[in-house]
Every structure is written in structure tokens, then in C-alpha cells.
Amino acid sequence: MPTTPRTFAAVDLGASSGRVMLGRVGPGTLDLTEVHRFPNRPVTVGGTLHWDVLALYRGVLDGLRAAGRTAGGRLDGIGVDGWAVDYGLLDATGSLLGNPVHYRDARTEGAAEAVHAVLPADRLYAETGLQHLPFNTVFQLTAARGTPQLAAAERLLMIPDLVSYWLTGVQGTEITNASTTQLVDPRTRDWSPEVARRTGIDLSLFPALRGPGDPAGELLPEVLAETGLTGPVPVTAVGSHDTASAVVGVPAAGDDFAYIATGTWSLVGRELDAPVLTEASRRANFTNELGVDGTVRHLRNVMGLWLLQECMRTWADRGDPKDLGPLLAAAAELPPLRSVVDAGDPAFIPPGDMPRRIADACLATGQPAPRTAAEFTRCVLDSLALAHREAVAQARDLSGKEVTTVHIVGGGARNALLCQLTADACGLPVVAGPAEAAALGNVLVQARAAGALDGSLAGLRALLRSTQRLDHYTARPGAAAWDDAAARIGRAR
């Protein structure tokens, strides 16, 4: 291995913002610097909610230009990760057939019922191991059937693969994101012909599968010119689902841990060697998504900080914007567990007036509705901790493996109140950090593929533990209060 650190750019696309991070990696070295951050603002056109993917791509190019300036014009590699399930359609010339539709758009209403009519929910789970979410790609494609765009499409690229294609001109389907389509068999780590046949989805739309660490091309000449980078610059497939990269970035020792990858969503689960395809796992709505190095991410989606983000957006739209720091400080002073909601309630998925929906949910369960912004914030964070508690316990029980530590990574690792409440709710120690776990996992997979590092996931995580700041939270007494709160919303164990 080289002794001089090498430099890699991680393009990390989230549901609310994108960022380009610059990582310096070598034996004993792992430094990460944010060089560019840009908003991800969906746009409603003709009644359909779209991603503004060209604005995102502009942000990526600006970020790579900034990375090049910081690194002296030369990068040793680039990797792209982003959110799951959404896609862009290309015509025979490789041109994009319109902006991708946002997973929160209402077009998938009724699509799940149409799929289950030809492939019952239990059979679909047995084939794919994927939790039921109304916006899974299989339902999006069912909803799009008969549309001119899908009829004209020659290729379908998941969002990170689309960005990678624009950078390199090379098409591919990275496996960790492909596994979120509900078209992949997690046992074979390949497409499920049975699901495709039953649902009428043409798998030839997808380019060849590739895995984390596989080459994904080199920057095109026009991209080099646009960004000022000196070529050749390789692009490497990483765990292109941002959660797959984030789980690589969990600084765990051993395998007796649960993780919570926090952001717009909270992804709560275990890293396993094989999928859990039991009926109990399906009823608990746990998913089996593919991870790096042949692993399986057995997890459940919890609504996450979307609840608070959408409250803050609503308040800002009303002319009453809130600053997060003082809001969290005020929430920390309030009595705990006064009112909680079921963070898994589908009523909270669409954008809109989140404070009203939270208040309505509290009243419907006989609890007082929050009134102030601090009370709404405390309700959201108590509710998220309660949802984390249930999901961690289910992940333990369904896998049959004990959990001794909970790792919180992603943006929520910076939220000390959420981390402490999660420790209290779970009755387990919480290790918080790194906040940029997805970008770090992205960089680590690139570096290993390039020969700058070697070893297993355990070795990569040891490097994280020795180089990244981690905060520790000890559970405080009070399990009975959490039991009572769970019973109020019908989530008692």
C-alpha cells in the first residue's frame, strides 16, 4: 500500500441536500472535508412532484470543481451515493426522458394493490425480502405503465447511477441500490425473474449489475474541462444507496451492534450475513437490502427527522422561521413523553402541514396536542426515540442475535437530545458519529478498490474508530415511562 495519503471525492446526494466531500486516505489516515453543499429542492409541475435532477448535477459539477481546487487539480477517484427507489428513464440515444418523479408523489396510490393482485404480499416478500413501502420501485413502475415516457425508455438508471453515467458515459446498475427496487432476490444477489414475470416489468431496462468497488468508468473529457480536473480520473461504484455507504461508516467493533442511520429517514437494523425472509420479519416490515462485501442490511425504515424538517418548513412558510439550536435547547427543558405519535404512520409521508398532522394524531390517541414549536419538537424527538426502541428490539429478536450497543450515524448523530433519548428508550449505550458516515463509507470503498487501503469491513471500521470523533451516551433509568408511551399509541411490546 502507498504510504502517502490519496485523495478521493465522495458525491453524497440526500433527499434535502447534496454534498461533495474530499477524503484523504492512507494507513492510519482518514480525513474528510466538505468542499461544496447544495440544496435538493423538488419541483411540482402539472400536479406531479419531480426531482430537479439537472440542478443536482450542476451541484455535483460545482462540487468536483471545488474538490479539484482543494486537491491541486488531481483526484485519485470519485464515487457517487444517493437515495434509493427513484430512477431516470433514458431513450435510445441515452437522453433523459424528463425529470425523475419524487417517491413522495401520489402517483403510486393503488399501485401496491395492483401488484399484490398478481403477486401476493407474502410471496413478494419471500422473493425479495423487501419491506412494504408504497413508493418502492416496483410500485412506481407499475404506476408508470402505459405512460409515453416508459414506452419510449430503453434504459432505467437509479439516481446515483444516472449521475455516474453523466460523469463517465458508462451505464451500470449498482447492486445495493438495485436491491431497493423490490426486483432483486437477496439470496442470489441477482434479479428475480419471478417478480419481473408476474409484474410485467422488463428487466432489460436495467444495465448490467455491478458491485461496490467495481470500476464505473472515467470522467469524460467534457467533464474534465468543466471541472478543471486533470485526467484520467476513475469513477468507482461504491455502496450507491447512501444507507449502504453509511453502514460501512459505522465504527463498530464486533457484530453485536444495531445501527441507526439518521437523516430524513431513520434506518434501524442489523448487518447480517444472510437475509431474514420469515413471516415474522415481513409482518414487522423489515427489509433485506444488500450491503457491501456480501452483507445484508436487515432494517426497518422509520420516518426520521423528516417530521421535524417538515415542521420547520411549515413554520418558515408561515413567516415564523425557527433556528434549530435554540429550538432543541427549549425542547430539552420540557417534560418527557407528554405526547408521542407513531413515527411509522403513513399519514406523515407526504409533504404538507406536519404540525397539524402531529397534533391530530395526538388528539386521536387521547393525548394533549403540542402547541408551541418546542413542544412539537419534543414530541417528534420522543416519538423517534420510541420508534428506534421498537425497531432495535425487533432487529434483535428477528435476527436471533443480541444487541449490546446502538450506533447512531448520519445527521442525527449531531442531535444530542435525540441520541440521549434513544439511549434511554433502548436501555442501551449509544455511540454517536460520524455524522458524515455515508461519505466516509463512500471514500473507504473507493480507497480500498484503489489499493490505498486493504482489509475487511472490520479493518475499515477500526480506521474509523481511530480517526473520527465519537460521542457516548449512557441510558438513564425510566423504562416504565417508555412502556407507557408505547402503549398510548398501540406500539407496546
From TrEMBL:
Keywords: ATP-binding, Carbohydrate metabolism, Kinase, Nucleotide-binding, Rhamnose metabolism, Transferase, Xylose metabolism. One of its GO terms (molecular function) is ATP binding. InterPro entries: ATPase_NBD (IPR043129), Carb_kinase_FGGY (IPR000577), FGGY_C (IPR018485), FGGY_Carb_Kinase (IPR050406), FGGY_N (IPR018484), Rhamnulokinase (IPR013449). Signal peptide: none annotated. One of its GO terms (biological process) is D-xylose metabolic process. Pfam families: FGGY_C, FGGY_N. Residues 258-450 form the Carbohydrate kinase FGGY C-terminal domain. Residues 47-249 form the Carbohydrate kinase FGGY N-terminal domain. Belongs to the FGGY kinase family. This is Rhamnulokinase. It comes from Streptomyces genisteinicus.
